[in-house]
Specification:
- The protein is of the alpha/beta class.
- It has one domain: P-loop containing nucleotide triphosphate hydrolases (Rossmann fold).
- It contains six helices and six strands; from the N terminus they run E-H-E-H-E-H-E-H-H-E-H-E.
- A six-stranded parallel sheet has the order 3-2-4-5-1-6, sandwiched between helices.
- It is globular.
Length: about 170
């Protein structure tokens, strides 16, 4: 099953973590790969996800926020890292070992042209039926939405950022 969490609102990664917890609670294995967040940026979920045990594999596969928040890396480096992360997560999804494989922020990686939409679509067609694949991030491509089994749009209604309130540990990251 292909599940997509998209939209400009908060809660996409958080929902993916919730689904991963549900799978773990039923005895399944989870592979959770992040495409943008890097090892150098400590988010609140990192410590918890890294401690979930042998049935949960957490891959922090990004180099940071591309082109914003002081990022000075060439786009080619971000692209190479996204491709490496996609290869690892794809292998996990095709292995038959995992009940759920989360491609966190893959939609962002696609909208930044770090990955090929057609390559990702080709991969989705090969995933075994017993494996759920979840794509998160803003701007999910229409082609993904069309073939997905479940799509949730996290719509922003109101956010403190609009009032100039900066992100806070434990709430935003």
């Amino acid at each position: 099953m292909l599940l997509i969490l998209t939209g400009n609102g908060k809660g996409k990664t958080t929902s993916a973590i919730g689904q991963a917890i549900r799978v773990l609670g039923q005895g399944g294995k989870v592979f959770f790969a992040q495409f943008i967040k890097s090892e150098s940026f400590s988010a609140g979920e990192d410590k918890i996800l890294s401690s979930l045990g042998e049935n949960f594999h957490f891959e922090k596969g990004g180099l940071g926020f591309v082109g914003i928040l002081g990022d000075k890396l060439p786009v080619e480096e971000h692209k190479k890292k996204a491709e490496e992360t996609f290869l690892k997560a794809s292998k996990a999804a095709l292995s038959g070992i995992y009940k759920l494989v989360v491609f966190d922020e893959i939609n962002n990686a696609l909208s930044l042209n770090l990955l090929s939409e057609s390559a990702v679509l080709d991969f989705v067609k090969k995933v075994p039926k017993e494996t759920d694949v979840m794509f998160t991030g803003r701007n999910a491509p229409v082609s993904f939405i069309e073939i997905a089994d479940l799509v949730t749009d996290c719509a922003e209604i109101k956010h403190p950022f609009k009032e100039g309130v900066p992100g806070e540990k434990g709430r935003e990251f």
